[in-house]
Structure prediction request, 365 residues.
Amino acid sequence: MNRLPEVETIDAGAHPVVLGAGALGTFNKRIGELDPSACFILGDENTLRHCLPELLAHVPRLRDAETIGVPVGEASKSLSVCSDIWQHLTDRAADREALLVNLGGGVVTDLGGFIAGTFKRGLHCVHVPTSLMGMVDAGIGGKTGIDLGGVKNVVGVFHDPLAVYVHVPFLKSLGKRELLNGVAEMIKHGLVRSAEHWNAVSNAPLHDLGALEPLVRRSAAIKAEVVKEDPREKGPRKLLNFGHTIGHGIEAYSWEGQQRALFHGEAIAIGMICEAWLSCRAGLLDRESNDRIAAQLLGLYKPFSLQGSEAHRIIELMRNDKKNSGGQFRFTLLTGIGSAQVDVPITAAQVREALEHYRLLVKEG
Ligand SMILES: NC(=O)c1ccc[n+]([C@@H]2O[C@H](COP(=O)([O-])OP(=O)(O)OC[C@H]3O[C@@H](n4cnc5c(N)ncnc54)[C@H](O)[C@@H]3O)[C@@H](O)[C@H]2O)c1
Prediction:
């Protein structure tokens, strides 16, 4: 097997993504060049416990940084948590030359990116993603945001970090369910951009970090390529929405219902099954590819049982989504394994059929 470079830098347009065994050493050097007026490290209870000691061992220039902890979970992406952090930074007289280091999964990088984008009209931040979802997706591309009234990411800004430093060994303390959560986005990257990557992710022993590292690099590179083409999500970046139009509706629905609340990636996996089927129905994707995609995703993720009557509420929740304008659903659909088409109009009746298709697959399975 080819040895991976010690440090690999991928250009995501407005910021670099630095990966490899030497990534955190590069970060240490960069702090020396930046010479910030103060450093703050934002993390949640898990990432401060499991990842902070390793971060400080590799980045000694952060040893005097002050840590800011937030509770674990999506609820931290809230106005009240932001208000506490803004107040904390004000009390410590943080200025625009200060550096905020966001050490965590997508919750911490979304929240910390938003804080950095808004405090004193913008301070420097760096993302150090610690979840697989953060490494291949959430940490890259400068989208930040918090939730409001149960609607995800409704308040936010684009604010690019100075850099994203990806240190794969952080994943050793991540639970299996959290790991699979990120795998869903890697599968999506393959489906919309690279059949080769999809095959590699399908066949890899995902619990083996050595085998996972090159796949993390490839997925991060795909996300970075797409973001670079369209930094403010005006067109081509919609490619990354595959699985997310129905997926977001299912995710929001799972939070309200009686059954278990789904993780983002778990809901996106269901969304991808439904949307691959819509691609097939629209004559864009061949039947065999559709069946392979469904078999792969059903093999990896636990089934979510739906009643036919629940489609109505899921579709209602989908209408709240930022991606859907003017009451029309616009989908990113597959034209093959490794390619996709954006802005395909789909009716609510077709969405209902796709949900019914998933319901029957799970029931028969
Ligand atoms: N901005 C974007 O482009 C973008 C893209 C995708 C997702 N997101 C957002 O990302 C969030 C989901 O990200 P996530 O799945 O990383 O969620 P998360 O940040 O809540 O992390 C998942 C869980 O793993 C724990 N964790 C993280 N790293 C760990 C480690 N190394 N060891 C042990 N535990 C660890 C966290 O404490 C948490 O309990 C959502 O809010 C979603 O909206 C944003």
Observations:
- DSSP finds 14 helices and eleven strands in the chain.
- The longest helix spans residues 209-229.
